[in-house]
Fold this protein.
Amino acid sequence: MNYDYHKYSYRTQKRRKLRRSRDGVIWGVCKGLADWIEAPVGFVRITYLVLLIATGFFPLGLAYILAAIFIPLEDSLWD
């Protein structure tokens, strides 16, 4: 049997780039992450808030600010 294992490899799928959403609540980081991992945005926001409180605000708060600075905005439909 001639079976091509590489045909169904994850590398053959086109991966979308991580972008911040233009219609997010604060800076669009959670919505952009939710779109990227194809998860409900409410789940990502609640998970982030629980982890933010559990870690004492510092590591995830800093990570959110850095993500807002370094992750580019999604392309606008009007550009």
Summary: DSSP finds three helices and no strands in the chain. The mean pLDDT is 86. Helices lie at 29-37, 41-54, 58-70. Residues 19 and 74 are 5 Å apart (CA to CA).
